[in-house]
Amino acid sequence: MIHWITLFAVEEVAKEGGLFDLDATLPLMAIQFLLLALILNAIFYKPLGKAIDERNEYIRNNQLEAQERLTKAEKLAQQYEQELAGARRQAQTAIADAQAQAQKIAAEKVAQAQKEAQAQREQAAQEIEQQKQQAFASLEQEVDALSRQILEKLLGADLVKS
Question: Where are the transmembrane segments (predicted)?
Fold first, then answer.
């Protein structure tokens, strides 16, 4: 019996409508479509949209944090470079001061060594002069003794004593 009713309804529709029949099925299909869209939106699209929004927010936050860290790292690197440049300048200044002080000490030691050498040279010259004077004095005595001996031999012993 149900089979006959369905067959009758199909024949009735085929006779009346054609391809597009604007009876109560069109609004019913529109309502079904809207209900399906609302159900899909509530079940699938809102949670999916929420997950996508959360992911976008997470990515945006990570990017902002990464930019902040990068900025901070660049500032630290710049600060460390400035500190390093200052330390290098201080080291160069310390090296220059140490070299100047070393040169000053070396010059003082050289001057002191020259003074000592000059003093030793003068002392040696004095000693040589004293030895020379002593040698001349002893030579004079020997010359006097020899000249007396020569005179005694030449003139005789009696004349030299007078």
Answer: 24-45
Please state, in angstroms and rounded to a whole number, the distance separating the CA atoms of residues 137 and 67. 103
Using alpha carbons, list the distances in angstroms from residue 100 to 90, 96, 105, 108, 161.
Answer: 15, 6, 9, 12, 77
Residues 144 and 153 sit within 8 Å (Cβ to Cβ): no
Nearest-5° angle of CA 96, CA 102, CA 105? 145
pTM, two decimals, is 0.43
CB of 152 within 8 A of CB of 160? yes
Cα separations in angstroms, 47 against 40, 53, 57, 91, 118? 10, 10, 15, 64, 104
